[in-house]
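User: Can you help me understand a structure? I only have the sequence.
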Amino acid sequence: MNQLLLAIVLMVSATSCGSSKKPNENTTTFQTVEEAAEHHLTGKITYLPNTNNTYVLCTSKAMKNKMEVMDFVVVRTENMSLIKVPKGNFREITWASSEEIKVDYIPGTPESGKNDYSYLFNVVSQKKINSTSNNKP
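Assistant: Let's start by predicting it. Here is the structure, written out as tokens:
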């Protein structure tokens, strides 16, 4: 009986030592900006640091439904961690300031009277902060 119990304990400990958990994307850190970008983007990646080099905007382009769309991630250079960013079909992504990214997106269904499909994304608060349009209703 003791030998059976010992065998079970050894089997359980051997299988649990070999298992690995997938890291949480919100807390994953990397060795380099390139490693972080390549983990989430495909194709040719463009790297664009902000003015004070605290964040790097990493973008890539791909064909999706016969349209060229962009995808992006933002890496915090202090600890090589990823900033959670919105997902979507983007046509252009650029720095608007040292903490804000201007995101131009490809609309699904045009909205009446709206001709500007863009917003700002704040990398510090990790939130969309407003439309860059000054359209009147």
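Now, to help you interpret it: Residues 2-18 form the longest helix (17 residues). Helices lie at 2-18, 33-40. Let me know which part you'd like to focus on.
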